[in-house]
Fold this sequence. Notes:
Radius of gyration: 20 Å
Helix content: 25-40%
Oligomer: single chain
Largest sheet: 5 strands, mixed
Order of helices and strands: HEEEHEHEHEEH
Distance between the termini: 45 Å
Amino acid sequence: MARIKLFIPLFIFLVLAVLLYWGLGRDPSAMPSALVGKSVPAFKLPALADETSMLDASLFQGQVSLLNVWATWCPSCRVEHPFLMELAKQGVPIIGLDYKDERDKALAWLADYGDPYKQVIFDPQGTLGLDLGVFGAPETYLVDAEGRIHFKRVGVVDARVWEQDFAPRYQALLDGETPVADPNDR
């Protein structure tokens, strides 16, 4: 019995090594979301530009769009922002979610770097972010014309990510088709 106890640390090490190997083989930006296939959660939050104007999930009705979670404190958001400006110029509707941020800093950011958003939801407490299951910024969701989430990306969206992960799904939704599901989407 004493000899078996000697192998317990080895067994624990092997189990941890297998779990680590499995985890390293996964794409950390392909975070599954419990909301894929479900509607954007109900919310009522102020617009960034006008705190008296309240916004809700009806923002996502009628057109395929992106929901981009960003903040001025997020260095990756600064990297992503120029590509979002390009998408907006191409006519891709983007709704921003200014997450756990300060209004004045966010307004200055958009004035300095440009505003790719059709509308920006101001979420200083992170309530909508919590309902969405936000891990941090940036995160981007693909939302259909009925307000259902079809895809979630954690991390920077750039040209490569757009072409590989978003463009085919976005086009399928524009064409009235259901995008092909990725096993990591759920």
